[in-house]
């Protein structure tokens, strides 16, 4: 009998029981994508249409992205073989970093294993570089940014109300003028689909002598003339200190990065544990990501199709009286408002209509904000949208239907 183990096992069982009782137990649906039929997936022996993919442009199945990965796999083998520090850096990684720096008009970029690691590693490295850093974090920031700013000795964290510039200003004014400061926020917020007032936040950063760190994960590839995100679209990239992005969503592959001034990138490269002590991304992945970034940069029409799809889906939901949050982006949240109801809606969509949409519950969103988060990629046909609307009308609780259609 081991006392710690039995206490821990009790703790696990009780915690899991609580999750189940509250309808928050996470089930990972088995969904197998069929590359040439996207957004049709195989689920338990049948076809389902997926509305919850973050591969917003379908680049993960693009023939040039697949071919680049296949060639690199054959030419260079499966794994990177070690950390960049010990086993060397593939020229593919250097080329990808150059491409990403250019995408954001920055001097340099640094590749990480994922967007999560990029945020955690870059933010924690910055905040521990000067004594007495104050970080100002939007209340809806992603878990990966929070992971980079919590529990650091000597670092004070201030949380400003979501997109609330006046609250941010008050917090900035409350700390000593000469203290080092970092403002960390997102451009497109992943659960609501709303957009940050980037220019106003940059104005405050200048007034109070703060640096800025912008997570553009849900915007890179999707907004701006060349897919540089909201900061490119609004002509603000040059005012930001760091831009962070992912290769997993709009670019459809995997990996994360930060782009910034050369010495900032070099400093993070030289100090970030999450970069130095982990194996580099494999050549095939990097080659696919590079092919994707190069393609997406030049394909404004694809970006245009994503925007048109979002407008069409929103219009169809509105016409059917389906309540949705007022998103300004391609992310279309449909509010259900209660964890068990939200899961029941998703279950029925799948069982009765062969439609997959992930229920988003607490703690990803606040209690009462439970929702389905939908995105129509350029590959979702209009008939699929119409079928989705019919299905939602039939399975959503009455309260989620604002009007009779
Ligand atoms: C998904 C996400 C990340 C993490 O990116 P990955 O590449 O998936 O690790 C970071 N920030 C935000 C806002 C995200 O939604």
TrEMBL record:
Which protein are we looking at? 5-aminolevulinate synthase
Reaction equation(s) it catalyzes: succinyl-CoA + glycine + H(+) = 5-aminolevulinate + CO2 + CoA
The cofactor(s) it depends on are: pyridoxal 5'-phosphate
Q: Which Pfam families match?
A: Aminotran_1_2
NCBIfam families for the chain: 5aminolev_synth
Q: Which family does it belong to?
A: Belongs to the class-II pyridoxal-phosphate-dependent aminotransferase family.
Q: From which organism does this entry originate?
A: Sabulicella glaciei
Task: Fetch the InterPro entries from UniProt.
Answer: 4pyrrol_synth_NH2levulA_synth, Aminotrans_II_pyridoxalP_BS, Aminotransferase_I/II_large, AON_synthase_class-II, PyrdxlP-dep_Trfase, PyrdxlP-dep_Trfase_major, PyrdxlP-dep_Trfase_small
Q: In which pathway does it act?
A: Porphyrin-containing compound metabolism; protoporphyrin-IX biosynthesis; 5-aminolevulinate from glycine: step 1/1
**Complex and partners:** Homodimer.
Tell me the PANTHER family matching this sequence: 2-AMINO-3-KETOBUTYRATE COENZYME A LIGASE, MITOCHONDRIAL (PTHR13693:SF102), CLASS II AMINOTRANSFERASE/8-AMINO-7-OXONONANOATE SYNTHASE (PTHR13693)
**What EC identifiers does the entry list?**
2.3.1.37
Q: Which Gene3D superfamilies match?
A: Aspartate Aminotransferase, domain 1, Type I PLP-dependent aspartate aminotransferase-like (Major domain)
Aminotransferase class I/classII large domain ranges (all copies): 47-392
What's one GO MF term for it?
5-aminolevulinate synthase activity
What keywords were assigned to this record? Acyltransferase, Heme biosynthesis, Pyridoxal phosphate, Transferase
Look up keyword Phosphoprotein and say if it applies.
no
- PROSITE patterns according to UniProt: AA_TRANSFER_CLASS_2
């Amino acid at each position: 009998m081991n006392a710690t183990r039995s206490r821990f096992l009790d703790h696990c069982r009780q915690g899991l029981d609580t999750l189940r009782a509250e309808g928050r137990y996470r089930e990972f649906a088995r969904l197998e994508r069929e590359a040439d039929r996207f957004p049709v997936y195989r689920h338990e022996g049948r076809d389902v249409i997926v509305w919850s993919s973050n591969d917003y442009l379908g680049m993960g199945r693009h023939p040039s992205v697949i071919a680049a990965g296949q060639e690199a796999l054959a030419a260079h083998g499966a794994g990177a073989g070690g950390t960049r520090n010990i086993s060397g850096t593939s020229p593919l990684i250097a080329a990808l970093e150059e491409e990403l720096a250019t995408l954001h008009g920055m001097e340099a970029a640094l590749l990480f294993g994922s967007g999560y690691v990029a945020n955690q590693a870059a933010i924690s490295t910055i905040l521990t570089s000067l004594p007495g850093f104050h970080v100002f974090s939007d209340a809806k920031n992603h878990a990966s940014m929070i992971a980079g700013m919590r529990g650091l000795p000597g670092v004070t964290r201030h949380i400003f109300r979501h997109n609330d510039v006046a609250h941010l200003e008050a917090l900035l004014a409350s700390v000593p003028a000469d203290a080092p400061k970092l403002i960390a926020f997102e451009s497109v917020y992943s659960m609501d689909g709303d957009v940050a007032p980037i220019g106003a936040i940059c104005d405050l950063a200048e007034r109070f002598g703060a640096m800025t760190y912008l997570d553009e994960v849900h915007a890179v590839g999707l907004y701006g003339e060349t897919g540089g995100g909201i900061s490119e679209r609004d002509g603000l990239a040059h005012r930001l200190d760091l831009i962070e992005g992912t290769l997993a969503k709009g670019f459809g592959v995997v990996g994360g990065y930060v782009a910034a001034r050369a010495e900032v990138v070099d400093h993070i490269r030289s100090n970030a544990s999450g970069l130095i002590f982990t194996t580099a991304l494999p050549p095939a992945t990097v080659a696919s990501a590079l092919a994707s970034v190069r393609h997406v940069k030049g394909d404004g029409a694809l970006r245009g199709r994503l925007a048109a799809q979002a407008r069409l889906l929103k219009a169809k939901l509105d016409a059917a009286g389906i309540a949705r949050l007022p998103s300004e982006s391609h992310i279309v949240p449909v509010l259900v408002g209660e964890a068990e109801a939200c899961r029941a809606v998703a279950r029925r969509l799948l069982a009765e209509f062969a439609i997959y949409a992930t229920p988003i519950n607490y703690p990803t969103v606040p209690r009462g904000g439970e929702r389905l988060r939908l995105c129509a990629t350029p590959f979702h046909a209009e008939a699929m949208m119409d079928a989705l609307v019919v299905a939602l009308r039939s399975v959503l609780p009455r309260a989620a239907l604002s009007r009779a259609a």
